[in-house]
Amino acid sequence: MKLDLTGKRALITAGAGGIGRRTAELFSEAGAKVFICDIDQNQLEDARDKIPNLNGMITDVSDKLALKDMFEAAIDDLGGLDLLVNNAGTAGPTERVEDISLEDWQTCIDINLTSTFLMSQMAVPYLRDAGGGAIINLSSAAGKFGFPLRSPYSAAKWGIVGFTRTLALELGPDRIRCNCIQPGAVEGARIDRVIKAKAAAKKVSENAMRDELASITALKTFVTADDIASMILFLCSKAGAHITGQAVSIDGGLEGLV
Question: Are 128 and 176 in contact (CB under 8 A)?
């Protein structure tokens, strides 16, 4: 099956590395014009150099004014909008709830959930003008299971599921489809940092922590950025034209979180 996005205009947050980078690559290969933002200058420049039909700018998505400036620059560059992928996120603190500061809680909520709300809010008029489109939000397995020591992150990711399903109902009449992805442990630098923090909190080795995370999946493995990006591409293409309001799990058959 060839998934075609020829002529589509896509905006991807945190698009210079990991899931966002692979999504940008697949979108470009499928014919879309892509604009990304990221906080990593080196990765952003590398993406601009290596991915055709892509532009972008440095943006801290927790900064509301910077987010607005980036969105306006994206619209100027793309000439409109058909696809939005809210990929930006942060792991947040790994601590017991009584030890988490309000500042750390708020930062995690702002990056993971509030930025998704703001980006979607700004995008809707342009998606409506385009005659419809798609919004993909990145939730997590932490948005369907409890996640000990990660309460701000889990709260944000559960919030994304509810936000996505509500958007799907509101925007369906405008032919704007809204879905979210719930990845399990994804190979890469982010899960390495999570494993290190969880291992320290539980006073076990990082290898033991990694093995424990893999052991609670049916396939006994982590997933990859390509697994996630491929589903995002599918949902944004004509093949996903009648899929909306869904929280799609890509987690190797995850049974829970530890």
Answer: yes
pLDDT in tens, 74-115: 999 999 999 999 999 999 999 999 999 999 999 999 999 999
- φ, ψ of residue 133 in degrees (nearest 5): 170, -155
How many other CB atoms sit within 10 Å of the CB of residue 23?
30
Characterize the bridge pairing of strands 176-183 and 133-138: parallel
H-helix segments, 178-250:
189-202, 206-215, 225-236
Token couple for 45: 């420049």
Q: Where are the domains of the chain?
A: 9-184+225-249, 185-222
pLDDT of 247 higher than 80: yes
* Residue 183: strand, helix, or coil: strand
**Residue 75, token pair as written in the block:** 């619209």
CATH class of 9-184+225-249: alpha beta
Q: Are 35 and 77 in contact, with CB atoms under 8 Å apart?
A: yes
> For residue range 193-202, what is the model confidence (pLDDT) as tens digits?
878 888 888 8
Q: Confirm whether 126 is a catalytic residue.
A: no
Residues 120, 135 contacting (CB under 8 angstroms): yes
DSSP type of residue 16: S
Q: What is the pLDDT of residue 57?
A: 97
Catalytic residue, candidates 153, 158, 163, 222: 153
